[in-house]
Amino acid sequence: MKKYFVIDTNVLLHNSESLTSFADNIVVLPMTVIEELDKFKSRNDELGRNARRVIRNLDSLRRQGNLRDGVEMENGGRLKIVIERDIATDSGLDMSVADNRILAVADALFKQEEKVVFVSKDINARLKADALGIGVQDFEKQKINFDELFSGYREIEVPDSVVEDFYQNKEITIEEAADTVPNEFVLLVSEENKKHTALAKTNKDGILVPLNKYYESAWHIRSKSKEQRMALELLLDPEVQVVTLIGQAGTGKTLLALAAGLEQVIGGNRYDKLLVSRPIIPLGKDLGYMPGDKDQKLAHWMQPIFDNLTFLMGGGRNDKADEESIRQKVEKLLNNNIVEMEALTYIRGRSIPGQYVIVDEAQNLTPHEVKTIISRAGDGTKMILTGDPCQIDNPYLDSSSNGLTYTVERLKELPIHGHITLRKSERSILAAAAADYL
Question: Which CATH architecture has domain 4-137?
Fold first, then answer.
């Protein structure tokens, strides 16, 4: 028996290919969904682009038959557009609310004893559908199990002789590490003496090798934990072209990424420029219109980046004595285009060769948005994605469906990708307490 999948607007705006994601079942779009897509189609962001793409796909299907009666899709499924006035429902929902009109379609099909599933990324809409007795689900495609997310690091207990062999031979292959992926870190711990350890990284041939001694620090910054040391290894290794860093506030994700960027752009001339971007999603109530040109508007959203740059240009010290000089150094970097800050909106369509690119707060991006950004990379470009999947401000994303965690899981087996999850806050005792207890 075929299922009827009633699709909410936010699913189509999240993933424009979602219409074809339900195999050989029947996909139902209430007319209200079409009307809501029309409101988004003129926008200049990812939502607008997805709305236009869905509308074009629907227009293509229209040429094959009447959408009201249903049209066959290439995947063996069928798509129908249902006009709400054609259905009768006694659900008691306020039909002046768009979400309720969409739910009314699902409710009517359900009362016709059809096997109905309401698909939405809106939790409240799913709760309403569940209260009506209708089967519900989030859009599951491009979701991963966050609880089992690849951490980039593991500990393995081995005989003391194995640790000694590693130190002497500078490489080792052991059965316990046979399933590691390229650039995964392994801490070898002696079974006889837990303090006798060796930190290794898996190379592209599956062999455990030592970390590079030249990657222990970057731009006056030294690692404060083994996880930060692993992060620096990935950030400074030119063979690793895309790095993902996950961690709670204060773990040093952005600071380490910026320090490694300055080291390689200014200190090593490995890249032509350091490009920093982040999604413009405010924490709490939006402040509304901001005066000034693009750079002046952007400065408000990029203040955390300025703070980190100021700290780094001050030699890694919070020294107030020479604050004016430090600020001038930061401004010089920006004025000379050594460091560039850009809104993600303006990255689409660009080709970015020979640059060190940091995308901060990447947990607020969809998988498609991350794909769009990474695909901008030209020859010699390195991409760094940082974020905390437990602090998401996008209402239709969660720790399992955001672009950052999706990228970690999808790219983990590639030799050009490296990932580490930072767990310990190093900002301050207070910051660590807030992260752990609040």
Answer: 3-Layer(aba) Sandwich (3.40)
